[in-house]
Known about the structure:
The chain has helices spanning about 5-35, 45-80, 80-90, 100-120, 130-155, 160-165, 170-180, 185-200, 200-205, 215-225, 230-255. The protein is mostly helical and about 260 residues long. It has one domain (about 25-255): MetI-like (MetI-like fold, Orthogonal Bundle), CATH 1.10.3720.10.
Amino acid sequence: MKLKGSYSFFAMIFCLIPVFIGFILPIIELINWTINYKLDFFNRDFLKSAFNSLLLALIAAFLCTMIAFLINFTARYQGNKLLSFLSSTLMLGYAVPGLILAIGITQLFTIIDNSFYLFRIDIILTGSLIGLIIAYIIKSYALSNSTIESGFQRISNSFDDVSKTFNISGIKLMYKIHLPLLRTGLLTSILLVGSEVIKELPATLILRPFNFETLAVSAYNYASEERMYEAAAPSIAIVIVGLLPIIILSRMIKNSRPGETLW
Length: 263
């Protein structure tokens, strides 16, 4: 039923109330704290935290997207049911709390480090960025896999059949056909995983190296010390980064032609 006149106006106001209370009002207050109280929030430490967050987000998003793409492509091209099962299993990582995931990775790396020590190998994995990136990939794989799997389902199997008929290698098929057709899905995956990584806090707190701050960690440290004004700037930065994928995807959907799929 399409509402008109005052009915339409009051329906809009009614639906706007939870959005205003839950999002618009807090954002206005955070912006007010950021601008009117202490502009020195945007100092060297803030820029360093922002750089660390973006660097981790880009690395984890790219690796997660490539892993999901390669697993889905290989499972499709070779009909490998084991890889399909592996992909479905990895998607369970999204349901695992970051804290539990971080404890498991820490325990695993401790065992590996002890093994290195026995063989006199001077490598320490515990407290490195490697564990943090692995945690991000496990945690965010479901987002990337869902996007890429949907993209593969929209590509006709006739492409694969024709390539096999002409003895075209799987690598060439992947590079020449699937990658161009899936570029929008790959970009979507990178955006979604990147925004998820920047917001992740429990795993980052446990697995990050010493003196390695991210926006989420900075906001948590300030808030835990009741320094709400200092926590405003990194919080706003996290919100902006989280909104970017939504804005980009909304524009992509708006600009797509009728009947055309997003990826």
